[in-house]
Specification:
Elements: E1 8-15, H1 19-30, E2 35-38, H2 46-50, E3 55-56, H3 61-65, H4 72-82, H5 92-111, E4 116-118, E5 137-140, E6 143-144, H6 165-171, H7 178-196, E7 201-202, H8 204-218, E8 224-225, E9 230-236, E10 239-247, E11 250-262, H9 271-277, H10 293-300, E12 305-306, E13 311-317, E14 326-327, E15 337-340, H11 354-365, E16 371-375, H12 377-382, H13 391-399, E17 403-406, H14 409-416, H15 420-436, H16 448-452, E18 472-484, E19 487-488, E20 495-497, E21 503-509, H17 529-544
Parallel strand pairs: 1-2, 1-11, 2-8, 11-21
Antiparallel strand pairs: 3-5, 4-5, 6-7, 9-10, 10-11, 12-19, 13-14, 13-18, 15-16, 16-18, 17-18, 20-21
């Protein structure tokens, strides 16, 4: 192989510009390697920039600084308890590599100028299990989006709102509880403070993307090509040595001396694959550019795949014509609400982890629904619904039948197409649990995770309130997701593996291009981005060696 084989050559080529891609690029730069980042669409940031931006990073350095107890042993005990070892991608060695890589990621990012904060009140999703904790999640602190200049204009889902992870659950009750009102005032204060000082502050996923764009691309001069999809890998003697890229319509052969990292997201927007692997068209809330091309290319070069039948599931309000599905979290946990299936029956703890709710939706009828979230008028008046902010969207949902209003339960049952007797029976049973404060069917409110999104002014159970006062409002819920979970099988160094377990030299994968270390579950807030950054960095470290 000679340099003339390639139009350009770098040490590392990174396919994708989300969290896994930026962590890989950061690690390559930290190791003194040259790196090129590729984005297939006109917008960079991937699903990360559209997300809440949290990272579930157990035993992280910020916890140690705050003198919050955690350890590698507790983290692994918790992961074993909630994940188990359902796949090769979630093996004991991969779980240990994830926990071991947390400190390296945090310390390296801070060295690059990224400033993190702890979501101190956010619990693991199964905090009562052995090793469970509260406060393991980190996020990038709100910052001035002006620091990345024109790159802000091409960020996917850029949001000029200085919100933090812990703001979201409190803002849900911004006008119904003192703590919610205080937090709402703080967010407004942050916004006004930014305006007064001439800053355009941003938070959550947009802050994450802003911080790493500044640290990697702007400050370290790493080239990032938009509208430059990878079409194929280049291999010689069984080793991946580069990639075929179409940049601005021109095909280029790009050399990669140390390796190619596939970090281009899952396949949630590929309807054909969704039908093949999941049996549904899908209602994704992630990057519309995620179509699984890097996974497909890796398979062509011998890579094994796993967990292709799974995703980061959750309930979503169905998309109205011209709109997008709205992933729901806090709204379904607040009191005075219930979720029923197409027959009008409850089937799960409405406040549980979104992945669990998604799996339960699949158990009912394969995830095809329809399902309905029914709200008592007290829920409508007391709590903030993230999906109900835009009056035009509300009108569109009403016109398309996604939202339904009714003065009585019989009228509501008729409008949403369920048996009146069944729905009435369901609500009578649920309302009895709400008054008693104990959900005898599904345990809603039993976990600290449930109560995180509840209303502390409602007793005896923060998550339960009778659904009995009209008028009632119902929203059609579909099986949604934050991205797919299946992809290239990798080892603890993010190296791509063949079905027989042998390594494909020069090929790496992280993020949703890889099969998840989290198996079929979701241990805590940010359990998508966290392994993406840890294994992205681990891959870069390995390439350097």
């Amino acid at each position: 192989m000679t340099p003339s084989n390639f139009d350009e050559t770098y040490d590392v080529v990174v396919v994708g510009t989300g969290s896994a891609g930026f962590a890989t690029a950061m690690g390559a730069v930290d190791e003194g390697l040259s790196v090129l980042m590729l984005e297939s669409t006109a917008k960079w940031g991937g699903s990360t920039s559209m997300s809440g931006g949290g990272m579930w990073l157990p035993n992280n350095p910020l916890m140690k600084r705050d003198k919050v107890g955690d350890s590698k042993e507790e983290a692994l005990k918790y992961m074993e308890a909630c994940i188990g070892y359902p796949s090769r991608s979630s093996s004991a060695s991969r779980q240990e590599a994830f926990v071991d890589g947390v400190a390296d990621f945090v310390n390296t990012a801070e060295k690059f100028g990224v400033k993190f904060g702890r979501a101190k009140d956010y619990p693991d999703y199964y905090p009562e299990l052995p090793g469970g904790k509260i406060g393991r999640a980190l996020e990038v602190n709100p910052l001035d989006s002006k620091i990345i200049g024109e790159w802000w204009d091409t960020m996917l889902g850029a949001m000029p709102l200085p919100a933090k992870t812990d703001d979201v659950w409190l803002l849900g009750r911004a006008w119904s509880t003192p703590s919610g009102m205080i937090r709402g005032s703080q967010v407004v204060g942050r916004m006004l403070g930014g305006l007064v000082t001439g800053k355009k502050l941003t938070g959550i996923g947009s802050a994450w993307a802003t911080a790493f764009m500044k640290a990697v691309v702007i400050d370290r001069d790493v080239p990032l090509w938009l509208n430059s999809p990878m079409e194929d890998l280049i291999a010689e003697d069984g080793r991946v040595v580069g990639a075929v890229v179409v940049k601005d319509g021109v095909t280029k052969r790009i050399g990669a001396r140390r390796g190619v990292m596939l970090a281009g997201g899952g396949f949630e927007s590929n309807v054909e694959w969704r039908q093949k692997y999941h049996g549904i068209d899908g209602a994704p809330s992630g990057n519309p550019g995620n179509r699984g091309v890097p996974i497909e290319v890796a398979q062509k070069h011998g890579a094994a795949v796993e967990l292709m039948d799974d995703a980061w599931w959750g309930g979503s309000i169905e998309a109205f014509p011209g709109g997008s599905p709205s992933f729901i979290v806090g709204e379904r946990s607040m009191p005075y609400s219930i979720i029923v299936d197409s027959k009008g029956r409850r089937f799960a703890n409405e406040s549980e982890s979104y992945v669990d709710l998604g799996h339960h939706m699949q158990e009912v009828d394969g995830g095809k629904g329809p399902y309905w979230m029914i709200l008592d008028i007290r829920h409508v008046r007391r709590y903030f619904r993230m999906f109900a902010m835009d009056p035009k969207a509300l009108k569109a949902m009403e016109e398309s039948g996604i939202s339904v209003k009714a003065k009585s339960i019989p009228e509501l049952a008729d409008k949403i197409g369920v048996d009146t007797g069944v729905l009435t029976e369901t609500l009578e049973r649920f309302n009895g649990f709400a008054r008693a404060g104990v959900d005898g069917d599904f345990g809603r409110g039993n976990s600290a995770y449930d109560r995180y999104y509840g209303d502390p002014t409602v007793h005896p159970n923060n998550n339960l309130g009778p659904v009995e006062k009209g008028p009632f409002l119902a929203y059609r819920v579909v099986l949604g997701d934050l991205g797919t979970k299946g992809g290239v099988l990798t080892d603890e160094y993010a190296r791509a593996l063949r079905e027989d377990g042998s390594v494909i030299e020069g090929l790496y994968a992280a993020g949703n291009n890889s099969a998840s270390v989290m198996g079929n579950t979701y241990p805590g807030p940010g359990a998508t981005i966290a392994p993406a950054v840890v294994f992205g960095l681990a891959g870069a470290r390995h390439m350097a060696r």
